[in-house]
Structure formats: C-alpha cells, structure tokens
Amino acid sequence: MWEMFLEEFRFQKGGQFATSRDMADHYLRIYDAIRHQLWEVRKHAVLNDIIPQFGEVEIDKPLEDAKVDAVKKKSAANAKRENIEKLLALVRKQEKLILYGTGRDCDGLLSFLTESEQDRLLYSDKKAAHSTYIYREKKVIAPSELCGEYREYMILITSSMYAISIQWELEDMGIDPERIIYNKECLWWI
User: Is the terminal CB of the chain with fewer CB neighbours within 10 Å at N or C?
Assistant: First the structure.
C-alpha cells in the first residue's frame, strides 16, 4: 500500500522546480500542512467541541493569518453557543409550544432541558399523519391538526437542515407564519 503514496497525485504533476531539493521541500511542507490539519480535526473530534471540517490547505501562510483564522473559529463557536442559549430561553419562555420534527436536532434540544420543561412540550411530525406515532411517551400530533385544536400554540421547527422547507410546507397548510419559529443550529453534534 505504501507504494501507492509514492506515486504523484494529479495536482503534483506539472510543477516546475529549480532543483529536486526544492521539489522535495515543497512536498514536505504540503504533507506537514495536511498532517497538522488532520491533527486539528482529530483533536476537536476527541474533545467533541466542534464539528470537524477540513478547510483549504494553505502552504506558507503567514502566522498572523493563522491567528486571525483561530480567532474567527472561536467567535463562530461563541456565536453558535449564543444562538443555542437564545433558543433555549425561547423554549423555556413559551407556555404553549409544539416542537415540529422528532429527529436528532429535537433530541439534542431536549437534552438541554429539564424533565419538567420537557413535560409541557408537545410534538408534531409528518410521521403522525399516516399512523399513530409515539415520541418520548407522548402521542405526536399530525401536521393537519396544527390549524385546528392547536392553533394557539407556537411551533418550533427543530430541524436545522430542513427548517426553511418545513416552514414553507406549514405555511402552505394554512399555518400563520407568525406562529412559526425555526432552529438554525445543529443541536445533535455539540
């Protein structure tokens, strides 16, 4: 298998270097940058503090730029924490609230709440439209019922990935957009 890594990659072909030493030095810097980025991703995965993502590999990036990038990453993590805190405050403040969507983001949100806070919440999901659906020992409300008996309830769309499309679906069903709040943060990978 090691022989596979001795072959040139497509991006390596066509590079022009004055000497073979320059070429070797260039590739060593590339491999060092990739190794460092892999280490960073592994560190954050072990610490479970952020979602690991690969950024662009930049060779010979000035140290000051790296510091600026670190500050940006830290401020993004702080912004995510602030958004989650605002969402939790909103959930705790609402007396009549239905969580729409019972997926991973809903589980993540509920993990931040106490049992008494969870007990006053109701759940709605598309899965309840076709048959009886139980989630956390409560009957899940079908989306069609949100316009009738539950029209006084605010609706929090828990899915961060599909929030906008779900909001459109709910509005198409006749639900007032003023009742709809949606989550912007991934809550299952924190």
Answer: N
DSSP 48-98: T-S--------TT--HHHHHHHHHHHHHHHHHHHHHHHHHHHHHHH-SSEE
Phi (first) and psi of residue 168, to 5 degrees: -60, -40
- Summarize pLDDT for 71-86 with one digit per residue, the tens: 777 777 888 889 999 9
Measured CA to CA in angstroms, residue 128 lies from 36, 108, 142, 145, 158 at distances of: 47, 21, 5, 10, 16
The CA distance from 118 to 40, in Å, is: 36
How long, in residues, is the chain? 190
CB of 107 closer than 8 Å to CB of 135: no
Q: Cα–Cα distance between 63 and 92 in angstroms, integer?
A: 44
User: CA 101, CA 155: separation in Å to the nearest integer?
Assistant: 10
- What 3-state DSSP class applies to 114? coil
* Stated pTM of the model: 0.62
Cβ-based neighbour number of residue 66 at 10 Å: 11
Contact 155, 98 (CB under 8 A): yes
